[in-house]
Amino acid sequence: MRQIEHTERSPSPPMVAMPAVPAPPHRLLALCGEVGLRRLVHRHMTRLRLTPLLASHDGPECFACVTERVGDFVIESCGGPLYWSQHHSPHRGVSAGAGWPVLLDEIGREIWLVQLWHSLDDVGLPDALRADVWRWAEPLSLHLLVPRARQTGVRRYPFERVRSWFTTPSA
Predict the structure, then answer these.
(1) What is the number of domains present in the chain?
(2) How many CB atoms lie within 10 A of CB 5?
(3) Could you list the residue range(s) of the whole structural domain that residue 133 is in?
(4) Residue 135's closest CA among 157, 105, 120?
(5) How many whole angstroms from its chain centre is CA 166?
(6) What is the DSSP letter of 102?
(7) Is 15 inside a domain boundary?
(8) DSSP state of 91
(9) Is residue 52 part of a domain?
(10) Cα dist from 143 to 6, 35, 163, 167, whole Å
């Protein structure tokens, strides 16, 4: 009788629990309007298009469609019309692979966040509104991570710390 060797695989590291994504304050929509939020999304997506995250996506039609879809999500999240839910199952929520244009690893997430920060500069968002966007988008970015990136401790980027990286100290 032949003995079967049993090789045990080491289990995959457990998935790190993702923080809840807080709802962004509705004042973002009230103060920026749909046009302002879409402008921010368009600027962020344009910046991402110059990075490896979106550089390989097909043509301007795809870019416009994806940008509109992300804008729909942002507007609805800020208390606007249900543009996103009308076209996407509300049960899919926000997670990697749920209709999002990119799935991020930890380096991709850093690129995504840095480009968001610069986009906030580009559109001239005041500091208080910038903090509102960041405190919503930073935890949201964790939900865009591919599953393997969730198996290790994820780095958090609080608004105050990131602002200090991009602020020139007074002389």
Answers:
(1) 1
(2) 5
(3) 27-162
(4) 157
(5) 19
(6) -
(7) no
(8) T
(9) yes
(10) 37, 26, 22, 28
* 18 class by beta-carbon count within 10 Å (0-12 exposed, 13-18 middle, 19+ buried): middle
Q: Does the residue 156 lie in any domain?
A: yes
Q: Where are the alpha helices (DSSP H) in the chain?
A: 27-49, 60-77, 83-87, 106-122, 127-142, 159-166
State the CB neighbour count (10 A cutoff) for residue 144.
20
CATH number, domain at 153? 1.10.490.10
Residues 122 and 116: their CA atoms lie apart, in Å, by: 10
Residue pLDDT tens, the chain, 171 long: 445 444 454 455 566 677 888 999 999 999 999 999 999 999 999 999 999 887 766 667 788 888 999 999 999 999 999 998 888 765 555 544 455 556 788 999 999 999 999 999 999 999 999 999 999 999 999 988 887 777 777 899 999 999 999 875 554
Q: CB 113: neighbour CB atoms within 10 A?
A: 17
Instruction: Tell me how far the alpha carbon of residue 153 is from its chain's centroid.
Output: 18
User: Is residue 167, in this structure, part of any structural domain at all?
Assistant: no
